[in-house]
Amino acid sequence: MIDKIFVEGILSKQLGLAGEEVVGRIEIPTTSANGDFAFPCFRLSKQLKKSPNEIAADFATRIKDSSIDRVEAKGGYLNIYLKRDAFVKDALKTLKAFGTKKHTEGKGKTITIDYSSINIAKPFHIGHLMSTAIGGSLYKIYEYLGYTVVGVNHLGDWGTQFGKQIVAYKEWGDKQDIEKRGVASLVELYQKFHEEAKKRPELDQQARDWFKKIEDGTDKEATQLFNWFKDLSLTEAKKTYERLGIVFDSYNGEAFYSDKIPAVVEELRAKKLLEHSQGAECVKLDELDMPPCLVLKDDGASLYATRDLACAKYRKSTYGFYKNLYVVAYQQALHFRQVFAVLGKMGYEWNKDCVHIQFGMVSIEGGGSLSTRAGNIVFLEDVLNAATQKALDTINNKNPKLVEKEKVAEQVGIGAIVFGVLCGSRIKDVSFSLEKALNFDGETGPYLQYTFVRCKSILKKLDKKLLSGTVDAKHIADESSFELAKLLVRTDEIASEAGEKYEPSILTRHLIDIAKAFNRFYLQNRIVGESDAVAKARAALTQYTATVLKKGMQLILLGTPEEM
Ligand code: ARG
């Protein structure tokens, strides 16, 4: 395959460069005017006592390969231009095998991903969208790369707030309303608790007592109510997960670790890491310039961090992870630094394999028009509904006879939202409008879907005999075909880079580039009305575009309708 590794091989062999001087240093110029591959010569300048451009000029005279058209020195770079037909011929082989072989990158390695991780009896709101989409996409990417992936929804299902929820239910709750409106009803009750507790402080004590009962697990009513809240919340959340095409292998949340806390505390004590501070117990992290990590409250109750310590140990011993990822908002950066640092002090070197994958905030422009079910909070489900409805309106306008309209509208509407959060680098705050996200022409989810549909419909209309047999690369060696082929063959490399950097947006951008390149290719190269040989070659490239787009879109959680 003619890729970066292939070029590295040529450079090290023909220029006599050592491995570390070339490996990982080949770049792909953003514009083909600067070559199809480029090698920066700046680092060699000192050692060879020549200017980067002199080095590049010298190298340029020494490189020869049947796949290379010419090599030029420019601005300290060695720019390599491929022979288009040789490259396309090679690309066709790679593309034919695309998606058929199992990737080996992740063989024998397990990655645990903690994502979405919603809180019980709290809204599954738009703020959870980033974690859910980024984590869900990384899950698919790692799976594609051959890793064993364990997706965990680390539920927020522990703490005094559940005592408060019980008190509120018993004081003002209406079973039927809760059954009807689910979490929205629970959220209102919880808010009422806080208002009332200002006037009646005894409610707080009652809440603590109820939570104690949940903790003991001996009080039937407490356990029943707690489980009811949990079931309600999960049933609701699972509907959204299904719509997003997201799966979890475990729903072990904070409550799951409650019986594993004593052992962790014992261990911290035995390792002499626990210190008293104002009645509470903590692990000091002064030497790492961090505030102490609180482990036990003055009443002996565990904290969020304590449960995460138990959880990380559990994940290591249960799954033997190669990496343990937490897709959680940047606001929790200190929390995770503390947890990982405490694990380090406990002697667990695998703390270096624990990674907090941070992201910014998401908001929807004009979100004020979205309904709020409880306490001014926009539920994610309502955002998905609004997008789906808008997509349906567009379809009714443009293509009212489309079969399975509702299904397609769902794929397009949800695709628009998911794309909106996966298209930019994750640490940036995202704000997008439903209008723009649903635009079929912009850089959007629907644009990718539309391009895929376009490929499919072109192929459907063709004579079957054009879709098989050998393809002569010389018919697709023009610039736009070549540029498209160049992008298509890089998809696996890009998926791997997205996984390595925990950044699905790298793949999202790549797919947009492919879609644009395809639309350019198709504008310049008709298929119908050409000789069979030409039509066949262009049809093959169209077919490969469809295959690559489909796989790529699955990896970023986009549905791939065949018509729209
Ligand atoms: N439930 C938490 C929240 O909504 C996120 C949990 C993240 N995972 C973890 N292991 N701490 O903020």
How is this structure best described in words?
With 564 residues, the protein is an alpha/beta fold. It is built from 22 helices and 12 strands. It has helices at residues 4-15, 19-22, 45-48, 52-62, 84-97, 129-144, 161-172, 175-181, 183-199, 202-216, 220-244, 261-270, 304-319, 333-345, 380-398, 405-422, 434-437, 445-461, 479-489, 491-500, 504-524, 532-555, and strands at residues 37-40, 68-74, 77-82, 110-114, 148-152, 274-277, 280-285, 290-296, 323-327, 354-357, 362-365, 430-433. Strands 5-4-9-10 form a 4-stranded parallel β-sheet, with helices on both faces. α6 links the parallel β4 (110-114) and β5 (148-152). α13 packs across α14 (333-345) and α19 (479-489) packs antiparallel against α21 (504-524). The chain is globular and about 85 Å long.
Please give the structural blueprint.
Elements: H1 4-15, H2 19-22, E1 37-40, H3 45-48, H4 52-62, E2 68-74, E3 77-82, H5 84-97, E4 110-114, H6 129-144, E5 148-152, H7 161-172, H8 175-181, H9 183-199, H10 202-216, H11 220-244, H12 261-270, E6 274-277, E7 280-285, E8 290-296, H13 304-319, E9 323-327, H14 333-345, E10 354-357, E11 362-365, H15 380-398, H16 405-422, E12 430-433, H17 434-437, H18 445-461, H19 479-489, H20 491-500, H21 504-524, H22 532-555
Helix pairs in contact: 5-19, 7-9, 7-10, 8-9, 12-13, 13-14, 15-16, 18-21, 18-22, 19-21, 19-22, 20-21, 21-22
